[in-house]
Amino acid sequence: MRLLAFLVAATAAAAEAPDYVLVEEHHHVLPHILALVAEGKVRKGATLVHLDSHHDMGLPASWNHDDSSSRNDRTSPSVSHHSVHLEHTHINNFLLALGLLDALDHVIFVEMPWSRQCVDLHNRTKSLRLGFVDGVPRVAYEATVSEQRALGGIFEGHQIVDELETVKTLKFSVIALSDAPRMISKLVGDTDVILDVDLDVYATTSPGALALRSAGLDSATIRRLYRLAHDMCVFDATFDFSRAAVESNCKVEPLGSGPVTVRLFQEDLRDVVDSAEHASDILWTDSRRDAFTSTLRPFSSDLKASFNIEEKMREFIQQPFHDDANSLEGVGHVLRETIRQLDRVKVVTAVRSPFYAPAELLGEVECKAYELFSEVFGTGGTLLYHDGVKANRTGCLQSHPVDCHHSVGAFRHVETMELKEQDVDAHFFSDEESDVVVEACFVNDGDEEVEIYWSVLKLETLQPGKKTYFKTTAGSRWSFRRGDDVLKTVHIGRSARNVYPLHGASFVSRPVEMLFFTPSYARIVFDAGDGEVEYEGDLTQPVETYHGHIWRAYDALGNLLGSRTVDAAEGYQQEFHTEL
Asked: Cross-referenced Pfam families, in alphabetical order (predicted)?
């Protein structure tokens, strides 16, 4: 009888255990949560406790969730349902989408001490009125001056309106990590709870920080720069995360002595330091600016050689950053005490956050998170994830609850642990890509399957003899890969339709940059199959063209001055001359 009672109790506990959702990118939790609400696992109007280094409360820029029936590239209603939702959200705006879809009534953001995004909203709850203007999401709210400053950093100016026919009112609360254990249960009330855990809550990097590493700065230097820019404590193993970051609980970043000369500051690093200062919300003193500049000086040569360094520095300062492994235990202790206060947790998400959760810490952090979930909620529950997510690649799921793999379309994502620092430049800071949208066709004319990547993002596995099409931007980087081997890299051309075979000898997909040396009165034309394209003579800016294009120059009377057939084998940069 005792054994039977034990088994009954264990079965009941397993049935009450939350479901677990594992994703790479944060907005991929959206279709999982909607499905659980539809199934009745979570009641509508739930409270989502958002443990993250970022608020993710942006408003979707577009909204057309009724377009699935008009699309012909979906293979089933479930695929259509998931894909359509994801087409209108991103990693920083899925929470309000969940509100608009009635899954949530309340979002509680537990803000980490290194995040300064919502400080003016600490210990406050705001009512956000959500609705639509001409079919596009908009938000309205009442706020004090300081609250407006914080909320203005969340929403774009044109998204905030005074008058709005409200579709949904969503409560948004913010509490500091140190206050979370004593405040969280009061805020939650008696609703069902979704515990939303971005693994970068333990530690976070950013595209800007990764770009600085690729420019030659070491981790300790990058941490110091961020602390200097924001006048922050040293968050290391000695910092008590259960207490506020006040003077008695704070080692400050030393400013040092010995001023930096004005000449060196202006000549070497002025633009970089100015970009950092303008991106910060702290008033910089001369000593703080000097300390920042002195820290950068040993790297000045590498920084000057890195393109867009001012933009990278500005992006680095603007986004939350803290990647010190020594503070993981301290952060985990307060997270544990916070989660223990939650009742009725129906769903727990675990988000790997590429470009934000530090790749070198992800395995340790993910194991800590799952150990914490098991400790608080016990064993049981179901693990949900989709094709393309390697559930146990960190080795942390050996004792995890039941595996329930969803094969509903591989969501496009970047795998955090496969990131290389040099990938960040291409992904976030490339100055080669344009806004021109073109079509690219990738052809596997080999004998083995290959993977198609956009930058560092795997999009499709292509079988031998198959082709696939993507809409993308001219200048973007794509590649054919097999495992870790890059077989071929291509830059997408500006032609409306581009074809890229893996092995093909054809040069049809290879762009050529052409300069024209012709009389100023000449007309230069070619027919690319889509109608005649015309330019004026004496063109000093290069024009991108393709193998096989036939260019002709005519004078004002229509006399042919000369012609040239583009041969991509002659190189990327070529010239077209006519007799003057």
From this structure: UPF0489
Among 161, 78, 154, which Cα is nearest to 406's?
A: 78
Alpha-helical regions (H) of 17-76: 29-39
Three-class secondary structure of residue 574 per DSSP: strand
Element (H, E) at 108: strand 104-111
**What range defines the domain where residue 92 resides?**
2-204+325-418
The vertex-25 CA angle with 51 and 463, nearest 5°, equals 160
> Which is it for the CA torsion 155, 156, 159, 163, positive or negative?
positive
Radius of gyration of the chain (CA): 27
**Pick from 367, 396, 418: which residue ends a domain?**
418
Q: Is 9 exposed, middle or buried (0-12, 13-18, 19+ CB in 10 A)?
A: exposed
Place of tokens 């040069």: 507
Residue 518 confidence (pLDDT): 83
Query: Quick check: 533 pLDDT over 70?
Result: no
More confident residue, 531 or 32: 32
Sheet-wide strand order for 104-111: 136-140, 124-133, 166-176, 104-111, 46-52, 193-198, 345-351, 19-23, 382-386, 402-406
In SS3 terms, 502-533 reads as: CCCCCCCCCEEEEEEECCCCCEEEEECCCCEE
Domain limit, last residue, from 277, 297, 318: 318
70 within 8 A of 80, measured Cβ to Cβ: no
Evaluate whether residue 424 is within a structural domain: no
Q: How far is CA 137 from the centre of its chain?
A: 21
